[in-house]
Structures are given as structure tokens and as C-alpha cells.
Amino acid sequence: MMALCLNKLDMLKNTASLLSGALLVTGTAVGAGMLALPVATCLGGFVPACLIYLVCWLFMAATGLLFLEICLWMPEDANIVSMASHLLGPGGKLISWVLYLFLFYCLMIAYSAGGAGFISGLMNFATNLELPRLYGLVLFVVLFGLIVHFGTRAVDRINVLLMVGLIVTYVAFVVIGWDHVEETRLEPNNLWQGILAFPIVFTSFSYQGIIPSLTSYLHRNAKKVRFAIWVGTAIPFVIYIVWEFLILGIVPLNGAEGLLQAKKMGASAVEPLRYLIASPWVTNLGHAFAFFALTTSFLGVGLGLTDFLADGLKIPKKGLSRWALTLSVFIPPAIIAQANPTIFLTALTYAGGIGCALLLGLLPIVMVWVGRYRKGYKSHVQLFGGRIFLTILALFVLFELFVEVSADF
Q: Which one of 65, 170, 247, 396 is CB 3.0 to 4.6 Å from 38, fit for a cystine?
């Protein structure tokens, strides 16, 4: 009997660790990027958007498995920069440094711009007073930047509350908003216009940066990490399809408060809701969800960038040095966000189209190629298909970069 109880306890612990790992992947992927998805894909329509989500999900899951393979070659707790240094030399280390900074600063710019607009809009709605956007930006950056400044524990405690709010408002928005969907608005079907949204979709499925930590957390058990990657990325896939259905079905494509106008203004998908739906419940839930999505992403990226700079530049996270780190993380993005009020979508596009595509897409492909076929690391293969499949994945990244350039013109 005792042995049976211990066996059941072990099974429960194993299940809990698997679910925890999967949810860690989900929590990293789902964030402010999804606020831009319906705006970016509106010209393509619902069905093309679903196809793009499917392709990006499978690709990002594949590159996550490649990162897992690299982690199992490396010592425990190796990060992306040390992986690139080991496999690609000093040049690879420099490239990974540049790409990492480019990606994270683009995200900080996008989230600062989105947060500024949200705070200003909230104050205007609540008080009927016109709050200048600069004040909204300062309030957002100072309040949540200080939380990051106080460290991981402060971020963790606030993030738990924000994640609860994120889940509750998303579920409530889905339940209440479903009755407001007009299916005729889902009919546009232009695959190329959907493909042009690849860069932002890339950002919304990004999670690979936590694979080293996840591998250590699951005791380098490849089977458990694979489970966490597949399940953890499948959940955002479902969440995004439901979100796409709701927003494209509620908000018209054209008109003064349509999705095209939101795209032109660089706004998120929830901005038009306050002008289109008489129900304050739907509007308020949409904006509350946007707030939680923005702030969780802002805190996570801000903390990650702070730790990256502290580790990479060997700056102690205490005293004046900590304040210098905080200012270097939050001030430059805030200045750029204030100078370019409509930069939310643009910054997310560059983050996904260049940063995610190269750092989280092409880099692991190149590192695995070098590891397998130059250095002779034959163990821990996580993605089969050999050179042919790696070449297909690399060509897909090049296609995505072509899409990025095409979208600019």
C-alpha cells in the first residue's frame, strides 16, 4: 500500500512538472503581440490567418526542439550567447549579442508605445479629461519600470496577479463577445495579405529564450521538454484562433473605427471596440485584457533585458549600477515611443520579422547544422529529417525575411 501511494505521488509530481513546463512556454509566448494579430491579418481574412498561425506554430515548435538539442550538448544553464560562442565562435557570439539587443529593444519600444496609449485612453475615458500621451507614457514606464528595478521577486509577485487578470478577462471577453460576432466579416480570403503578417505572428509565438531554463527545470529530461514545447505552443495557437475569430467578427474592416484605420494609426486590435459596441462589458473587458497583456509582456521583457545586460557587461545589480541598468533599459525605448506615437505595430513587425526570425529561427538551425555536421555531435537528436529538413527550415526563414522587405515596400 505504501509503495502504491508513493508511486501515485510520483505520478502527480511528474504530471505537475509537465503542466508547469507547458504553461511556462505558453506564458512566455502569449503577450502583447496578440493584440496586433487581428490588425496585421485583417486584409487576409480569418482562414488565411489560421493557416499562417498553423505554419508559424509548427516552425517555432521545430526551432524550440533544435534549441533543446543544443542545450543537451552544452553544460547546464548555458544561454543563447554562450551556445553561439561555443558552436559558431566569436563571430557567432557577436551576432547573437546584436540580435538579442535588437529584438528586446524593439519589443520594449512597442510595449512602451502601447502602454502609453492605453494609460492615456483609460484616463480620458474615466475622467473625460484629455491626458497628453507623454503623461501616459511616463506613468506607464515609471510605474512598471520601478517594479522591474526592484528585481525578480517583485516582478514575480505582480506578474501572478496580472496573469490571473489576463486569464479572467480573456475568458470573459470570449464568453460575452461571442454574441457580437458577425460571420460575414470573416469572409475576406487573400492569402498573400495574410502572409504579410508573418513578422508579427513570429513575435507572438516566440518563447525559445526560456528553453535553457526549462531544460534545467525539467532536469534535462528531453521527453518532458518536448512535451512542454508541443503542448505549450499549441495552447497559444488555439487562443490566437479564437481571438482572431472574435475581433475580425466584431470589428469591421473599413470605416473610421475599422481595423484598417487601426492599422494605419499603429493601434492595437481592441482600440476600435469602445466606438463600435454599446455594451460596456465587452469594451471594458477588451481593454482590461489589453492592459494585462501589455504589462505582463513589458515586465517580462524588461526583466530579461536587465539580466542580459548585467550578465553580458558584468554590471553588478546593486546601488547606482542597478539604477544605470534600469535607465538604460527603459529610457531609450520611451524616447523613441514618444517620438513615434504610432510605432506599436512597426516595432512588433521589426521584432518578429528580423529579431525573432534571425535569433530564434535561423540561429538554432545554423548552430545545429554546425554541431551535427562540423563538430560531430550525434547524440540527443530532437528533430529528424537531417540536412534536408534543416535546409527547408532555413529557406522558410529566408522567405519570411523576403516578406518583411516586401511589406516595407
A: 247
Using one digit for the tens of pLDDT, what is the confidence trace for 167-218?
898 888 888 888 888 888 887 778 888 888 888 898 889 888 888 878 888 8
Instruction: Give me the residue label for grid cell 528580423.
Output: 354
Q: pLDDT tens digits for 211-229?
A: 887 888 888 898 999 999 9
Q: For residue 65, what is its C-alpha cell?
A: 526542439
